[in-house]
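User: I'm preparing a small set of examples for a lab meeting where we compare how different chains pack in three dimensions. I only have the primary sequence for this one, and I'd like the structure in C-alpha cell form so I can line it up with the others. Please keep the answer compact; I'll paste it straight into my notes.
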Amino acid sequence: MPNMLHDADSGFLEKAQLMKLKLKAMRSGVWFKALPRIDRVLVDLTIKVAGTVRSFTLAKNILTVIRKLESIMESRFQRAVKEVGFPIARRLGLIAQKWGNESAGKWASDEVFARYLAAFSLNEPKLFSG
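Assistant: Understood. Below is the C-alpha cell output for the 130-residue chain.
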C-alpha cells in the first residue's frame, strides 16, 4: 500500500485517498476492531463533506488516524523489514566499509537486502529462548 502520509505531506488529503484507506481497513477487518468510534466518524464525515482537506487542524487529525491504520495493517514481515532488516543492513554496511568495501554504504537503503535479512532473522531458530 502506498504510504498516504507521503501523499498528504506533498499536498492536500483527497476524498479518494480516504475512501481507499477505509475500504482497505474494512477488508482487513481492522476498521471496527482497532479504530475508536470517534476516529471512524471523523474519517466518514470528512469523506462525506469534504472533497479535499484544506484545514490544517483537520488534516493533522486525519493523519493521526491514517498513521494508526497503516501501522495496524502493516504485515508482520513488513514490520520486520523496517525494524530488523534495515538496521542490520546498516550495521553490516558500516562493517564492510571499514573492511574496504566502498559500495557497502548503499546496503543501508537496499530494500531487497533488508528483506533478505528480515526473512533470515524471522526463520532463525531460537536456541536459547528463556
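A couple of notes for your slides: Residues 5-11 have pLDDT under 50 and may be disordered. Residues 15 and 47 are 5 Å apart (CA to CA).

User: Perfect, thanks.
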